[in-house]
Each structure stands twice: as structure tokens, then as C-alpha cells.
Write a structure and sequence with these properties.
globular; 11 helices; about 450 residues; alpha+beta
Length: about 450
């Protein structure tokens, strides 16, 4: 594996898309904030601080049924280890009803090079399946390992094949609360015996991605891609800072692309009338956020700054957080009906994408509870929204759960038989969005 030169500092830009015009007395202001990071290169030795990754592999007894799951997990982890860049700190954890270090096994992280990668892959060959599942213990061990070194980028990759049956939901939630903000984590479910809301909840709490790998044969490619993305992160702990003037109320702050993630409840205060919303680690990428605020009523002809949106990152030298870029959200009152009633295309698009995610979840929940009419109505609305927004991937997943009679009208029939993997894939990927066409 080749060494990589020190990457350049990523550059962030903020673009605001909105209709700033309100009718007399209007109060609701909506904006889509597009954040783009470019020129960051890749992490590794000599980056803005080192990167560290802990891979957590489910080794519970169910991983032996079928045996291809355990074999696929070993091969996938080996492939991920091969993708590590020289200088990256790493460890492998075996997860059962307890968490055990597989490599390097000394309570610390190894540093990736040809020797340590070979040693890690040799250790993986000895992994066997036995015991139960207590994911909170895996996450806490990963946190301890990542805390053992001076790292800037801290990342976890977690694979499970079953439900978290050997600890309480409260214990898992406590572990997630303890780890939130300390490292990001991508979570994957292999097969179809795991709980979607558990896996997506882990990824959501730790600002990572979640997905299903129904066939264990696909694990190696998925792990390689995940590790490659982790190696592309150059700035960690970036926050979206929202400052609002006196009298302005925040309705919500949501990430809306590449996935829907409500950040409203994750605000931490950052000075007078300012709050930070976590966004995790960034590489070369672009994400969209929906900011909705309520301003005081005003007369025609008045205008005001409704909010200032900034990207904030920790200072490598330990000083105050540094601003990376910012954008302004405005409000202007007008008596021009056409101007005040026009809906910004970006706002309309992502409002529909958020509704699409909600409709899928509600439809699948209704289907599971036996409410066929409710499921048909909600999934029909989801089909309609997917078609209108051009979300072809979600439309394809929906077509495996319902027979589409008229996509434009949202007329569907529930399929009598649905493969469990198809239903779980739709639920797991329900929050994935398609970018607005500009």
C-alpha cells in the first residue's frame, strides 16, 4: 500500500436557495442550504491529525447460520483492512454479548502498514461465531480504542446479523449517547434477521450511513467502499451554526441530501442566539440542509436577516472553533402576490423528499400492523412522490412491495407476497434522497 502525501485543507462553500418574499404579516421562511467541501484530498499519515478506524464484526452464534455469513464477514473485514491507507490507526473488534479485541489486542490501535495489515488479516482467520449480541458493548470498546490515540478523524464500521437481544434498549441508547460526537459510525445489517430501526438508529445517532447487505457475498465490496469513503474524510466535527436575530424562532433544521436526518433536537448552544448542529466528518462532497425559521410579522417594504448559517470546525491548535464559510437567509415583505406565493424549487423538492421518507415508514409500519388500507394509502403517496421527484431508486424499491397501477396518481395495490429482504431494503433506504436538479 502506497504512502500518501499530506492533503490540502478542504475549502467549504455555502449556497442558500430560498424565496425570501413574504406577504404582509407572513412569518415562515424556508431555505435550502447547500454545503460543499472541495480540495481536501485524502486522510492518512500526515493529515490534519491522524485518522483512526475501528471495525466491529458481529461474531454471535447466528453468524454461523448459514456459514457464508461468518466467512463473508471475515473476507469483508480483510478487504477493508487492505483499503486502509498507510499511517491510519485501526483496530478490529469481535462483537458478541461482550466486545473483544481481535487486533492488535493491546488496548490501543495499530498503525497501518504492510506488516500490520498482514497481521490483522491473519488474526481474522481465527474468528469464530458464538455467543449473543450486545451492540452497546461493541461501541463502548470502539470509543475507548479511538480515544487511546491523538486522532482528528475517528470512525467506526459496524456489522451485525441479528437483533440486540443481550442488552436492554436503554443500555444501547446510553452507549449511543456516550459515543455521539466522539466518532462517526457506518452500520450494516447482513441477511434479514436484524432489526432495521436498530441499525438505522445507530447510524443516525453517530452520523454515519446504514444499509442492508442481504447476500453475504456482497459484504467485501460494501466494506471496501465504506472504508474508501472513510479514507476520504479530511475534516472532522464540523457543525452547522445557526444564528438568529431577536424574535426569530427556529422551526427545524434537517439534512435533506444525501439522506433525510432531523438535526433539530441535536442543537448545542454556541453563544447568544446561536446554536450548533452536528454534521460529522467531511471529505470532497456536497450536502443539503433545510432550515425553517419563523420571523416576527412585518409590514410591506420591510426586510430583515432571518438567519445566518455558518460552517464551524475545531481549531487544530486548540483555540476557538473556526468559521469555514457562511450564507444568509433573508425575509422581505411584499404586496406582490406572485412573488410572495412562489415556492422555491429546491425547497419544494426537499419538502417532497422528506414527505416521501415519512410516507414509506408510515406505510411499512401500517403493513406490519395489518392496516392494509393505511399501508396502501401511504405507500401510494410514496410512489407518487418518488415519481414526481425523479427518485428512480426509491421507485424501484417501492415496486417490489406494491403493484403500481398509476404512479402519477399514486394508485397502488399491496403485493400479496413480499420478500423480506425487499421490504427491509426499502425501509433501510427510505431516507435516501435524490439531489434537486438545478
Amino acid at each position: 500500500m502506497a504512502n500518501f502525501s499530506k492533503p490540502s485543507v478542504p475549502r467549504f462553500s455555502v449556497d442558500v436557495y430560498q424565496n425570501e418574499f413574504l406577504p404582509e404579516g407572513g412569518r415562515d421562511v424556508n431555505a435550502i442550504v447547500t454545503v460543499t467541501s472541495t480540495g481536501g484530498g485524502t486522510v492518512g499519515a500526515g493529515a490534519h491529525g491522524a485518522a483512526g478506524v475501528v471495525i466491529m464484526v458481529d461474531c454471535s452464534g447466528s453468524m454461523d447460520y448459514p456459514a457464508t455469513k461468518m466467512r463473508g464477514a471475515r473476507e469483508a473485514t480483510a478487504a477493508a483492512v487492505d483499503t486502509l491507507r498507510d499511517g491510519t490507526s485501526f483496530a478490529v473488534v469481535a462483537g458478541t454479548h461482550v466486545a473483544k479485541e481481535v487486533y492488535p489486542g493491546n488496548g490501543r490501535l495499530a498503525v497501518a502498514d504492510a506488516r500490520t495489515r498482514a497481521e490483522a488479516k491473519e488474526a481474522l482467520r481465527r474468528l469464530t461465531a458464538s455467543g449473543g449480541t450486545a451492540i452497546g458493548t461493541w461501541l463502548r470498546l470502539a470509543d475507548r480504542l479511538l480515544s487511546s490515540a491523538d486522532l482528528t478523524i475517528r470512525h467506526g464500521i459496524l456489522l451485525t446479523d441479528g437483533r440486540n437481544e443481550h442488552e436492554s434498549p436503554e443500555a444501547l441508547r446510553a452507549a449511543l449517547d456516550a459515543c455521539a460526537g466522539r466518532f462517526t459510525c457506518d452500520a450494516r445489517g447482513v441477511g434479514t434477521d436484524w432489526e432495521v430501526k436498530e441499525v438505522t438508529g445507530i447510524a443516525s445517532a453517530l452520523l454515519g450511513t446504514a444499509d442492508i447487505v442481504a447476500d453475504p457475498a456482497g459484504l467485501a465490496a460494501d466494506f471496501t467502499a465504506m472504508m474508501g469513503q472513510a479514507m476520504g474524510k479530511g475534516v472532522a466535527d464540523v457543525a452547522l451554526r445557526l444564528w438568529t436575530p431577536v424574535g426569530v424562532e427556529i422551526a427545524f433544521v434537517k439534512q435533506v441530501a444525501p439522506t433525510v436526518e432531523d438535526l433539530t433536537g441535536r442543537r448545542t448552544e454556541a453563544g447568544p442566539r446561536a446554536g450548533d448542529y452536528p454534521t460529522g466528518s467531511w471529505g470532497d462532497e456536497s450536502r443539503d440542509y433545510h432550515v425553517s425559521v419563523r420571523v416576527p410579522r412585518a409590514a410591506v417594504g420591510q426586510e430583515m436577516l432571518a438567519a445566518r448559517v455558518s460552517l464551524i470546525a475545531p481549531d487544530p491548535a486548540g483555540g476557538d472553533p473556526r468559521p469555514l464559510s457562511q450564507g444568509l437567509v433573508r425575509a422581505v415583505w411584499t404586496d406582490d402576490l406572485a412573488m410572495s406565493t412562489s415556492i422555491n424549487p429546491q425547497v419544494a423538492h426537499y419538502t417532497g423528499q422528506a414527505e416521501l421518507a415519512d410516507a414509506i415508514q408510515a406505510g411499512l409500519d401500517a403493513r406490519k400492523s395489518g392496516d392494509h388500507d393505511g399501508a396502501t394509502a401511504k405507500l401510494g403517496r410514496a410512489v407518487q412522490l418518488a415519481a414526481a421527484s425523479g427518485n428512480a431508486d426509491t421507485a424501484k424499491l417501492l415496486s417490489k412491495v406494491v403493484d403500481v397501477v398509476d404512479a402519477v396518481a399514486g394508485t397502488v395495490r399491496l403485493k400479496a407476497k413480499v420478500a423480506e429482504a425487499d421490504e427491509m431494503t426499502l425501509e433501510t433506504r427510505s431516507t435516501k434522497t435524490v439531489r434537486v436538479k438545478r
